[in-house]
Write a sequence for this structure.
């Protein structure tokens, strides 16, 4: 039996843990929203609305990344490194330092997207995926 995902908590709370599949779905939604906003809004409206939209999207991304980092047994503060790397390469890398950002994103993709979370409980909470039936109650 697996735990249901509270999507609002996933996007707006940095505590707890999240498994790979909901993490990847949430990440795809956030990157999609970044892409839609960047392609749909241009000029003066982008300058005005960007002060609200970008921080909101980055906050949601920090929450999602923190939960996945917690599932891997790492501090959620590593999300700051990943988000800085994302901002360095978005929408395309332009210089050598952007290459460093791309390497950080490659590490994050492998570590957070492909590797399983820690089994059982860790200091950030329980993992319902590997919990025994007794632990789930």
């Amino acid at each position: 039996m697996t735990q249901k995902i509270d999507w609002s908590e996933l996007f707006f709370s940095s505590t707890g843990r999240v498994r790979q599949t909901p993490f990847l779905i949430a990440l795809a939604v956030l990157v999609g929203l970044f892409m839609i906003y960047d392609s749909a809004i241009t000029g003066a409206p982008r300058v005005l609305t960007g002060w609200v939209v970008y921080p909101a999207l980055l906050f949601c991304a920090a929450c999602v990344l923190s939960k996945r980092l917690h599932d891997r047994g790492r501090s959620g503060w590593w999300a700051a490194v990943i988000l800085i790397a994302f901002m360095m390469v978005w929408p395309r890398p332009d210089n050598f330092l952007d290459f460093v950002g791309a390497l950080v994103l490659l590490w994050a993709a492998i570590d957070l997207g492909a590797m399983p979370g820690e089994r059982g409980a860790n200091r950030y909470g329980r993992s319902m995926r590997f919990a025994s039936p007794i632990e789930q109650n």
Residues 44-71 form the longest helix (28 residues).
